[in-house]
Amino acid sequence: MLSIIIPALNEEKYLPFLLKSIKKQKFSDYEIIVADGGSQDKTVQIARLFGCKITKGGLPAVGRNKGEKIAKGKLLLFLDADTLLPSSNFLQKAVAEFQARGLGIATSWIEPLSTKRKEKFLYSFFYNLPITLMERVLPHGSHLILVRREIHRKIGGFDPEIRLAEDHFYVREGAKWGKFGILRSVKIFTWPRRFYEDGWVKTYAKYVLGELHLIFLGAIKSDIFKYKFNHYSQFHSKHYQEIVCQCMNYLK
Asked: What spatial distance separates the first Cα and last Cα of the chain, rounded to whole Å?
């Protein structure tokens, strides 16, 4: 069984699209666990409506770990609440490639839910290309992490003390116990809300500095970058309806 674990906090406007895209999958041997960090909106009600298991969460690392505690699957798939599986055979392809390559932990490329070529280029050039070039020497993982449960337990799960880039740190620890790879058969789609909200230059600069901190100083356990889990949950810019329309096209 595949256990899909989603940490969430006030995600009523984004989570439904992800859950709908999961329910459309041809792959059926899965369960969905939503680790709620104390939502004040309809996040929990929506998760229940889609038949998800609910557990108490916290910051993403805490939520993912608590989700694993009640999971039944030998494979764990950690997804962000603002992502979308763009095709009905996404899970089927991802699991098949993962098994065929003998991977222990994996991630995928990311594409923004956007019709703008410039934004797609920025994601490809500044994230997908670098993580591909560094795949064998410096693993990265964000938005989607597929991992064997025994590896998750060997490394003690996600470190709850890490304030930023806990997913990248987790993947690097996991790669010490199993083969890491970037899945080539699938690509996860995500809402680019953090870039719209904080600006492209500022957001990218923050993650570059975070990467340097991770490499030279270790895991980021201070609040130097002022990270807030639900900072983007109330994103309602002019782009919202445009992206909703795009999501609906994928879910037809």
From this structure: 26
The count of other CB atoms within 10 Å of the CB of residue 38 is 13
pTM exceeds 0.85 for this model: yes
Q: Is 185 exposed, middle or buried (0-12, 13-18, 19+ CB in 10 A)?
A: middle
Say how far apart CA 9 and CA 227 lie, in whole Å: 14
Residue by residue, DSSP assigns 213-252 as HHHHT-SB-S-TT---TTTTTT--STHHHHHHHHHHHHT-
Query: In terms of C-beta density within 10 A (0-12 exposed, 13-18 middle, 19 or more buried), how is residue 24 classed?
Result: middle
Provide the 3-class DSSP secondary structure of residue 19. helix
Strand boundaries in the chain, DSSP class E: 2-8, 30-36, 53-56, 75-79, 83-84, 105-112, 144-148, 180-190
Whole-angstrom distance, CA of residue 117 vs CA of residue 109? 16
Beta bridge partners of 76: 3, 147
- Give bridge partners of residue 78 from the DSSP assignment: 5, 145
The per-residue pLDDT string of the chain (252 residues; one tens digit each, 9 = 90 and over) reads 999 999 999 999 999 999 999 999 999 999 999 999 999 999 999 999 999 999 999 999 999 999 999 999 999 999 999 999 999 999 999 999 999 999 999 999 999 998 889 999 999 999 999 999 999 999 999 999 999 999 999 999 999 999 989 999 999 999 999 999 999 999 999 998 888 888 889 888 988 999 999 999 999 999 888 777 766 655 556 678 888 888 988 898
Q: Which amino acid is present at 50?
A: F
Q: Catalogue all structural domains in the chain, each as residue range(s) with its CATH number.
A: 2-250 (3.90.550.10)
